[in-house]
Amino acid sequence: MANAIVVIVVIIIMLFAGKGAYKHLKGEGACCGGGSKPEIPKKKLDGTKLGEKTMKITGMHCENCVASVTRAINRIDGAAAKVSLKKGEAVVSYDREISNEELKKVVEDRGYHVVSIQ
Protein backbone atom coordinates (compact mmCIF):
# COMPACT_ATOMS: atom_id res chain seq x y z
CA MET A 1 0.00 0.00 0.00
CA ALA A 2 2.82 2.44 0.88
CA ASN A 3 4.49 1.71 -2.45
CA ALA A 4 1.30 2.55 -4.33
CA ILE A 5 1.02 5.91 -2.55
CA VAL A 6 4.64 6.74 -3.36
CA VAL A 7 4.10 5.85 -7.03
CA ILE A 8 0.97 8.03 -7.21
CA VAL A 9 2.79 11.00 -5.63
CA VAL A 10 5.70 10.61 -8.07
CA ILE A 11 3.31 10.46 -11.04
CA ILE A 12 1.55 13.65 -9.89
CA ILE A 13 4.89 15.45 -9.50
CA MET A 14 5.96 14.31 -12.98
CA LEU A 15 2.71 15.61 -14.49
CA PHE A 16 3.22 19.07 -13.00
CA ALA A 17 6.88 19.10 -14.07
CA GLY A 18 5.93 18.03 -17.59
CA LYS A 19 3.29 20.74 -17.84
CA GLY A 20 5.77 23.38 -16.70
CA ALA A 21 8.42 22.18 -19.15
CA TYR A 22 5.90 22.25 -22.01
CA LYS A 23 4.87 25.84 -21.20
CA HIS A 24 8.52 26.86 -20.87
CA LEU A 25 9.44 25.49 -24.28
CA LYS A 26 6.43 27.21 -25.87
CA GLY A 27 7.58 30.52 -24.36
CA GLU A 28 4.58 30.84 -22.07
CA GLY A 29 6.17 30.10 -18.75
CA ALA A 30 7.96 32.42 -16.37
CA CYS A 31 11.32 30.86 -17.01
CA CYS A 32 13.57 33.84 -16.49
CA GLY A 33 12.23 36.01 -13.78
CA GLY A 34 8.68 36.05 -12.64
CA GLY A 35 5.18 34.92 -13.26
CA SER A 36 3.87 38.14 -14.74
CA LYS A 37 4.37 39.49 -18.22
CA PRO A 38 7.32 41.91 -18.12
CA GLU A 39 7.16 45.45 -19.39
CA ILE A 40 9.17 45.59 -22.61
CA PRO A 41 11.08 48.87 -22.62
CA LYS A 42 10.71 51.21 -25.62
CA LYS A 43 13.40 53.66 -26.63
CA LYS A 44 13.41 56.45 -29.18
CA LEU A 45 16.59 57.55 -30.87
CA ASP A 46 17.92 61.02 -30.08
CA GLY A 47 19.08 61.75 -33.62
CA THR A 48 18.09 60.86 -37.15
CA LYS A 49 17.98 57.13 -37.81
CA LEU A 50 20.97 56.08 -39.94
CA GLY A 51 19.93 52.47 -40.46
CA GLU A 52 18.92 49.11 -39.04
CA LYS A 53 20.68 45.86 -38.26
CA THR A 54 18.89 42.55 -37.86
CA MET A 55 20.34 40.15 -35.30
CA LYS A 56 19.37 36.46 -35.30
CA ILE A 57 19.40 35.29 -31.68
CA THR A 58 18.98 31.84 -30.15
CA GLY A 59 18.24 30.95 -26.54
CA MET A 60 15.23 33.19 -25.96
CA HIS A 61 12.32 31.20 -24.52
CA CYS A 62 9.87 33.74 -23.12
CA GLU A 63 8.86 37.38 -22.84
CA ASN A 64 11.29 37.82 -19.95
CA CYS A 65 14.09 36.85 -22.34
CA VAL A 66 12.79 39.39 -24.88
CA ALA A 67 12.75 42.11 -22.22
CA SER A 68 16.27 41.21 -21.13
CA VAL A 69 17.67 41.42 -24.68
CA THR A 70 15.75 44.63 -25.38
CA ARG A 71 17.09 46.30 -22.22
CA ALA A 72 20.66 45.19 -23.00
CA ILE A 73 20.61 46.64 -26.52
CA ASN A 74 18.78 49.82 -25.46
CA ARG A 75 21.57 50.58 -22.97
CA ILE A 76 23.89 51.25 -25.92
CA ASP A 77 23.98 54.96 -26.79
CA GLY A 78 22.36 55.51 -30.17
CA ALA A 79 20.62 52.12 -30.39
CA ALA A 80 16.95 51.15 -30.04
CA ALA A 81 15.79 47.52 -30.28
CA LYS A 82 12.60 45.72 -31.21
CA VAL A 83 12.96 42.05 -30.27
CA SER A 84 10.72 39.25 -31.58
CA LEU A 85 10.49 35.96 -29.71
CA LYS A 86 8.68 34.26 -32.59
CA LYS A 87 11.25 35.26 -35.19
CA GLY A 88 14.21 34.88 -32.83
CA GLU A 89 15.58 38.23 -33.85
CA ALA A 90 16.22 41.79 -32.82
CA VAL A 91 15.91 44.71 -35.22
CA VAL A 92 18.26 47.43 -34.01
CA SER A 93 17.78 50.99 -35.24
CA TYR A 94 20.74 53.31 -34.76
CA ASP A 95 21.55 57.01 -35.06
CA ARG A 96 25.34 56.58 -34.93
CA GLU A 97 27.69 53.82 -35.97
CA ILE A 98 27.56 50.81 -33.67
CA SER A 99 29.86 47.87 -34.29
CA ASN A 100 28.50 44.37 -34.70
CA GLU A 101 30.95 43.25 -32.00
CA GLU A 102 29.42 45.64 -29.46
CA LEU A 103 25.89 44.46 -30.26
CA LYS A 104 26.95 40.82 -30.07
CA LYS A 105 28.76 41.33 -26.77
CA VAL A 106 25.81 42.92 -24.93
CA VAL A 107 23.43 40.16 -26.06
CA GLU A 108 25.82 37.28 -25.34
CA ASP A 109 26.71 38.77 -21.94
CA ARG A 110 23.02 38.18 -21.06
CA GLY A 111 23.36 34.46 -21.90
CA TYR A 112 21.97 34.32 -25.45
CA HIS A 113 23.75 33.41 -28.70
CA VAL A 114 23.96 35.74 -31.70
CA VAL A 115 23.86 33.65 -34.87
CA SER A 116 24.20 36.50 -37.38
CA ILE A 117 23.98 40.26 -37.81
CA GLN A 118 22.87 41.77 -41.13
TrEMBL record:
Residues 51-115 form the HMA domain. The keyword Cell cycle does not apply. CDD domains: HMA. Keywords: Metal-binding. InterPro entries: Heavy-metal-associated_CS (IPR017969), HMA_dom (IPR006121), HMA_dom_sf (IPR036163). Coiled coil: none annotated. One of its GO terms (molecular function) is metal ion binding. Pfam families: HMA. This is Copper resistance protein CopZ. It comes from Blautia massiliensis.
